Amino acid sequence: MSKYLLLFIFTLNSFCVLGQKREFYLNDDLNYISKNEFEKVEEEELTYTLRFDLDTCFMNVKVARLKTGKIDPNLYNTIQKNVLSGNPISNDYEILLINFYSGNDACSTKSYKENFAKKYNKFHKDIEATTSIKQVFTYSSNDKIEDFGKKINWQLDTNSLIEKNFFPIHYPCSGYVVIDNLGNYFCERGEYCYSQSFVNSLKEALQNKSLLTILKF
């Protein structure tokens, strides 16, 4: 679990009665919701749930696998400096693809990582040949990261910038975030892998100058 939830968890535990585990429910923004709202079946939004067993409470989080939004220019510039190592995006419409690994978990098996590496070998040249797409791989924990093989160049998430802003809790098999230079972003939290349709959607987003294309792939 992200270290940025420790204070939140401490506060949550303070509401619990010793010897009796209570259930708490939170939405994707980590705000309290009712049990009924938590169990409501979403018609349009792809969701899943995570359950954290704390010392005195259970914390249930309703996660939106796909999340969109817009970040402010200052944060965008900071992200560029942190992950692009002196190769900032130009003033033209360009896309930054950040693959994020939060550390080993039950989902992130060795076979999953080996399959990810195979898909990387198949598609990364196609992505990197498109100069308007900048791709990086960043991690918050390097536990078992060697299972991805030696070809992927992973770099530490400096100051936990990506984790804090896009992956505030530990999502199974981590995820990715796509950000354009207008500050619009599209984030998938949870298991994913390269595919031809994903690569095509990135190229189409460049052509249309809109990340909405990625939502359709």
Structural class: alpha/beta
CATH fold title of the largest domain = Glutaredoxin
- Mean pLDDT reading: 86
Element order: H for helix, E for strand: HEHEEEHEHEEHEEH
In total, the number of domains comes to 2
Helix content: 25-40%
Describe the structure.
There is one protein chain. The chain has 217 residues and is α/β, with parallel strands linked by helices. It has helices at 6-13, 35-39, 73-84, 110-128, 161-166, 196-208, and strands spanning 22-26, 47-53, 57-64, 66-70, 95-101, 133-139, 154-156, 175-180, 184-189. The protein has two domains: 3-64, no CATH class; 66-216, Glutaredoxin (3-Layer(aba) Sandwich). Helices cover 29% and strands 25% of the residues. The strands form two sheets. The protein has a six-stranded mixed beta sheet. It has a three-stranded mixed beta sheet with strand order 1-3-2, with no helix packed on it. A hairpin with a 3-residue loop joins β2 (47-53) and β3 (57-64). It starts with 5 loop residues before the first helix and ends in a 9-residue tail after the last helix. The model has no long low-confidence stretch (mean pLDDT 86).
Quick gist of this model?
The protein has 217 residues and is an alpha/beta fold.
Which helices and strands occur, and which strands form pairs?
Elements: H1 6-13, E1 22-26, H2 35-39, E2 47-53, E3 57-64, E4 66-70, H3 73-84, E5 95-101, H4 110-128, E6 133-139, E7 154-156, H5 161-166, E8 175-180, E9 184-189, H6 196-208
